[in-house]
Design brief:
Helices cover 31% and strands 24% of the residues. Helix 1 crosses helix 6. Helix 4 (102-114) links the parallel strand 5 (95-100) and strand 6 (118-122). It has 209 residues and is an alpha/beta fold. The mean pLDDT is 97. It has helices at 40-48, 62-65, 74-88, 102-114, 137-141, 190-207; strands at 2-8, 11-18, 25-30, 54-60, 95-100, 118-122, 147-152, 169-173. This is Alpha/beta family hydrolase.
């Protein structure tokens, strides 16, 4: 594992690399608006994927590196992501643009522009909680590249059945909330829920040309 600081027009970003020995893809995954790269799904992917030929680059947006608690506007998030993208491409491999929540939105908005190979959207925030009329479906549907959504069955930002038909795959984590946490009463435990995420992403990444 190595860490590097990348200067962008939005400030310094940070990439933590989890390299695969025989990498064929890079998964660049950023965090949401309320958390960091310590999110359980991001940590699990960084631990699991390198053994399957996928180098994982966990990305911290400039606002997190600066120690701020509130994410800036989407436009500023996109500026930070664009600025660090060249560093993600340094290994010379196809790059999957990914992220959870707000990070997933950034990946979708910029995928075609930056030449992303695919998009991984963890807990895509389809709408603000309780406001389904404020849909962000256009961002997801407009990614323009192969896209996998991993969504909790009880995510208040959009349950799987709320998603429109479109050119993307969707994997549900039953009973999962926006952090993909499952309640104790659920028939699957947290380790099983996390395994659902990593298995789905590994299978999907393996299918990418």
């Amino acid at each position: 594992m190595t860490t590097e600081i990348i200067g962008t027009e939005a400030g310094d970003a940070r990439i933590t690399w989890h390299p695969a020995k025989k990498a064929r893809l890079v998964l660049a995954a950023s965090h949401g608006a309320g958390g960091g790269i310590g999110a359980r799904d991001l940590v699990a992917l960084a631990e699991a994927l390198p053994a399957h030929g996928v180098t994982v680059a966990l990305v911290e947006q400039p606002w997190r590196v600066a120690g701020k608690k509130v994410a800036p506007a989407p436009k500023t998030l996109d500026i930070g992501w664009r600025g660090l993208w060249p560093a993600l491409a340094v290994p010379g491999l196809p790059v999957i643009a990914g992220g959870r929540s707000a990070g997933a939105r950034v990946a979708c908005r910029t995928a075609v522009e930056l030449g992303a190979h695919a998009v991984l959207a963890l807990s895509f925030p389809l709408h603000p909680p309780g406001k389904p009329e404020k849909s962000r479906a256009e961002e997801l549907l407009g990614s323009g590249v192969p896209t996998l959504v991993v969504q909790g069955g009880n995510d208040p930002f959009g349950k799987p059945e709320e998603f429109p038909d479109g050119d993307f795959e969707l994997v549900e984590v039953p009973y999962g909330d926006h952090g993909l946490a499952v309640p104790k009463r659920a028939p699957l435990d947290q380790d099983e829920a996390v395994a659902l995420v990593t298995d789905a992403v590994m299978k999907w990444a393996g299918s990418l040309g």
